[in-house]
Structure formats: structure tokens, C-alpha cells
Amino acid sequence: MENFWSLLKRGLKGTYISVEPFHLFRYIDEQVYRYNHRKNEDGEPLNDFDRFDRAVRQIVGKRLTWDHLTGKQMDPCSSEMPV
Q1: Which residues contact 38 (CB under 8 A, 6 or more apart)?
Q2: Shortest CA distance to 5 belongs to which of 35, 41, 25?
Q3: pLDDT of residue 12
Q4: Is 28 inside a domain boundary?
Q5: Residue pLDDT, tens place only, 42-75
Q6: Counting Cβ atoms within 10 Å, is residue 31 exposed (0-12), middle (13-18) or buried (19+)?
């Protein structure tokens, strides 16, 4: 736990200079992912490229539109945009 906490604090102070409390859970989720995927199945350490490659492979075939992200999805039965 202390190792994770020190990595989180170092990331928040060094990498992310201005962290809004509203988005804190997103920064923590990223650090949790990095911590949990720091080694491969053989126990060898992963570098940032290996983690990025693994994450990109998991998004193949998935699509996130701007409307879905911002909550402005259209009703399929309606031709009007939501207000």
C-alpha cells in the first residue's frame, strides 16, 4: 500500500501539475492500471510502450462518440437533438 501511495503522490505532484478534485478518481484509476499492469505474465517489468500497446489492443472494435461522452445522445425515435 505504501508503495502505491508513494507512486500516486509522485505522479500527482510531478506528472499532473494541476489536479482538480472533481477528476481525482480518473488520475487514481490511471495509477491503479499502471500499478496492476507493471509486470507481464512472466514477471518481467513492462515499460510505458508495453502498457500503451496493451491498452490500445483492448479498444479495438469499440467506439466512443462525442455525443455519448457528453451525454447528448439522440433518441433513435426522434429527429431532434436533446436540450
Answers
A1: 45, 46
A2: 35
A3: 79
A4: yes
A5: 888 888 888 888 888 888 888 888 888 888 766 5
A6: buried
**What is the reported pTM?**
0.50
Residue 42 lies in a domain: yes
Question: Is 54 part of a structural domain of the chain?
Answer: yes
Average pLDDT over residues 2-19: 79
Which domain covers residue 26, as residue numbers?
A: 2-62
Residues 16, 27: contact at Cβ < 8 Å?
yes
Q: Which residues pair with 39 in a beta bridge?
A: 45
9, 19 in Cβ contact below 8 A? no
Query: Structural domain tally of the chain?
Result: 1
- The answer as to whether 53 is a domain residue is yes
For residue 11, pLDDT over 80 is answered with: no
Distance CA 77, CA 32 (A): 40
d(CA 51, CA 21): 26
